[in-house]
Amino acid sequence: MRGGRIAAGTASLALTSGLAFAPAAAAAPEAPADRPRVAPTATKKPAKPKKTRQRAPAPKCNKQIGQPASAITVEPWAQRRLDFEQAWPITRGGGVTVAVVDSGINAAHPQLKGKVAASFDASGTTTDDCLGHGTEVAGIIAATDMRNRNVPFVGVAPQVKLLNAKFASGESTQDNTLLPKAITWAAEHGAKVINVSSAAPDTPALRAAVQAAQKRDVLIVAAAGNVAQDRRGKESAAYPASYKGVLSVAAVDEAGTITGFSNIKTRIDVSAPGQNVISTLGNGYVGGLQGTSFGAPYAAGVAALVRAKHPKLNYQQVINRILITAEGGNGQGSGHGMISPLQAVSGLVDPNATPGAADARPLSGAVPIAKPEPVDHRARTVGLAVAGGALAAALLVALGGAVIPHGRRRGWKPGRAVLPAEERD
């Protein structure tokens, strides 16, 4: 795997609004003031200079290269933990379009071929993914099931279509207008779910873009944002994750614990795998990824599954289903807890209920089946020991009741065996 990508600092990409830019063109030098100007003659007009159209140099795009599929030897832990394949007999996301607002998508990747319906470049460079981050996010959402070709990695919703809404590139400025432009384009081009694996400041343009998308019934899923561990406690809220009606996602490790880099200042709805993650890169794969950037697409994939199964629900009702069916918070910054793909798709819940409130329970008609009480092995062992001891004591008492009186009558002297008459000599 790429050493730099596996390293914590590099792999945990947290994109900011950016615009690739070329150096400003140098101003044309003015003629010296003492240089004599030549007036044109009356008989011959000076020839007009020919206009030449200069083409801007093609932007450099050093695409990241991943490891071959053979480098993945086991099923990634995030897939085992979420077990989203249980929902596939119900839906795989067909008919839903998910926009990846990121650094682009490598549509030539074997598991992403034919999935990108349209592309947009707000950065002014190229729709190609020069960083690799957008391709990693897209793979988690939609990678085709190729396990018949010994590729253990699969996407959450492999039948969705993707929109490639690029806003970030390798060379970036803090142009905070680019992220809103990408979100707006995605909403206007049919996205039902928009994944934003980046953290940006709160700006009027971003707020307006999110609200406009929501008016179109678009569900926006956003990463809570990353912070360096040495700055823990100094982070601030990230956007668009902190906006009302945006599904905000924190990152957990393999133990289900909120990671040290997951931003707890951001409003959190749910958590998802975001450490030691495997995904698509270039035409191959990469492991050791970490960041809330990678938790968000797992939640976006689940949102796509829910929208495919329940097309009449609006974006807020879909969010409610995801929150109500989540596994439950396990500490600060975990929200309603780990997403539960199967329950989000198939659970019999009221989508209008307020998550966490008393009315967020199964609908009438559902028969609640109580979970069996956990077996108390310690109490059972103690009980068996006591019963066994009591039985042994009872046997001893019964034996003593028969033997002791007889022994007293004989003065505790041993008796002699009496042989039958026919055996006597």
Give a description of the structure:
This protein has 425 residues and is of the alpha/beta class. It has helices at residues 3-6, 8-11, 77-82, 133-142, 178-188, 204-215, 292-309, 315-324, 341-346, 377-409, and strands at 97-102, 116-121, 161-166, 193-196, 219-223, 247-252, 270-273, 277-281, 284-289. A 7-stranded parallel β-sheet has the order 2-3-1-4-5-6-7, with helices on both faces. Helix 4 links the parallel strand 2 and strand 3 (161-166). Helix 4 (133-142) runs parallel beside helix 7, helix 5 (178-188) packs parallel to helix 6 and helix 7 crosses helix 8 (315-324). The longest helix is centred in the C-terminal third of the chain and has 33 residues, at 377-409. It is elongated, with a radius of gyration of 35 Å. The model is unreliable at 1-43 and 364-379 (pLDDT under 50).
